Amino acid sequence: MDVLQLGSYTFSSRLILGTGKFSNATIMLQAVRASGAQLVTVALRRFNREQAEDDLFGPLSAIEGITLMPNTSGASTAAEAIRAAHIARELSGSPFIKVEIHPNPQHLMPDPIETYEASRILAKEGFLVMPYITADPVLAKRLEEVGCVSVMPLGSAIGSGQGVATAAMIDIIIRESGIPVIVDAGLRSPSEAAHAMEMGCGAVLVNSAVAAAGNPPEMAEAFAEAVAAGRKAFKAGLMQKSGSAIATSPLTAFLGANG
Amino acid sequence: MRPLPDWLTDNRDTASLAAMLAPDSSSSLEALAAESKAITLRRFGRTMTLYAPLYLSNYCSSGCAYCGFASDRKTPRHRLEPDDIRRELAAMKKLGISDILLLTGERTAAADFNYLQRSVEIAAQEMQRVSVEAFPMSVNEYHELAGCGCTGITIYQETYNRERYEALHRWGPKKDFIDRLETPARALEGGIKSVGLGVLLGLSDPVEDALNLYRHLRHLGRTYWRAGMSVSFPRMRPQTGGYEPPFPVDDRLLARMIFAFRIALPDTELVLSTRESAAYRDGMTGLGITRMSIESRTTVGGYDDPENKEKGQFEIFDDRTAKEFCLALRKKNIEPVFKNWEPAYNGPSDGNASTVHPEKAEPCH
Ligand code: SF4
Description:
The complex is a heterodimer of chains A (about 260) and B (about 375). Chain A is an alpha/beta fold and about 260 residues long. Chain A has one domain (about 5-255): Aldolase class I (TIM Barrel). Helix content of chain A is about 40%, strand content about 15%. Chain A has helices spanning about 25-35, 55-60, 80-90, 110-125, 135-145, 165-175, 190-200, 210, 215-235; strands at about 5, 10, 15-20, 40-45, 65-70, 95-100, 130-135, 150-155, 180-185, 205. In chain A, the strands form 3 sheets. Chain A has a 5-stranded parallel sheet with strand order 5-4-3-10-9. In chain A, β6, α4 and β7 form a beta-alpha-beta unit. In chain A, α7 packs parallel to α9. The radius of gyration of chain A is 19 Å and the shape is globular. The termini of chain A are far apart. Chain B has about 375 residues and is an alpha/beta fold. Chain B has a single domain (about 5-20, about 30-340), classed as TIM Barrel (Alpha-Beta Barrel), CATH 3.20.20.70. Chain B is about 35% helix and about 10% strand. In chain B, strands 1-2-3-4-5-6-7-8 form an 8-stranded parallel β-barrel, surrounded by 5 helices. At the A-B interface, α3 and α4 of A face α2 and β9 of B. The complex binds iron/sulfur cluster. Iron/sulfur cluster binds near residues 64, 67, 70, 105 and 106 of chain B.
């Protein structure tokens, strides 16, 4: 069976859903169900132990068949992310941690140096680490080396809806990677998610595109279908683009049969 | 007299904001609203972060002409003692509040740095996020405050027009225009993670002030690349018996300013307080503002003792309860968010944090 393997965990769905930015918890839960996602991420800063109505963790943990992946969004240094990871594991019991470190809370770009440090330490501590990174092929390999279970390069800036603007770099990351590559951030439409999957991504993570849609549950379902179609196309093997096809009369025939 | 800083006359990227704010602007208010709404939805989703102010003290040594707490006003003065603060916090927590703004007047013997620092410590034990709107401090003081759990400083320039500024700030430390101007930079230098800026609309030419406010934000963003920033739009209303704002800003101009700032600064938190009416705040919901105050009291304390009839620093126009307010947000399909922070992220922002020192950023106890 074609599954997404993250550490010792396997998932048949390749769509990961973010849970912020929804107009209310009911719609968010409907979207999660409609997406068929088995892995969803929730920010530790949206865990509210004191006020159930404001808490995202409680209602999510009640859904069956869902693995929660807390994230450290809000952390600006490795030290903060590590503290957050410990709290998140204690509260959620999940071994997954999405390391999200943005030193500037405005544009939310991930800090490669802090992310590397935090991921290295958390992986050593036994977390299943999923770092959110810029689409940097070298950084991706460095994170694989220190034991991350996937890398999550950004397609474009969070909430920008610009799609996979970093496709050329993500292509290199996928080709070189021994762990699943998950495009995170920037996707606006299901067709862009399908494109990322056709490129060979292991999964995609979507939040704004679903939360800000006119009908979030329906959009979640559309993303699920697009992700499944894109994956199927990748597995089936896409036809070569024109220009790179092999010529019918070989260009190297003059070299002789045993050349 | 110290000269104005260069950035205050820097026209590098003000053109498009200026065009949107010009009195004869060709962009219709409706078109700006639509663009502002789309940007807000993409970047912030369908959410509104909520906070509440707590006035710690109304002692003040400054003479700001427009303020109910100026030192020549005959208003009773007090400050909250640690136990009062704990009681107020408990009452606020009952309302769901977990993000709090602590306020004082200008530095005085009764409410000095030590008093403020102690208050921040107490608040940080109870609340998820603590910001401060008080007197200007030194870099070291800001660093200490960050270590105690203060993540944000609000400091309004009030007006960027130096002449008007100096006339309005009749005496006291706040009279120093340049020192005030340099305060947000000192806060960021000291490791405070985000600064809230604003002009007090009504004091001076609002468009000129808005452009200078934008220059200030851009200057800070370029100098302190880690800086979180927010912009507030406090507006003075003509009030009976109070200070008459010489440059009143009407509803449409305020809306134009909010939309234009959202378009010019797509990632910046924009704040609207209970100085505005319920109808105006409801109308603005989803169109650009991403942070609002709730259940505000502008008297010292006031959460634990709802019978307190004292005069506050300014009049509140939206006096709905948190419940009523959240209901209105939900009607607009916007989720109220009470907790959007984690104390694990407290501590001074670390200029060069490439190695992990968990103990370095530990909040004080
Ligand atoms: S605005 Fe602040 S500094 Fe000025 S008089 Fe009022 S409390 Fe004092």
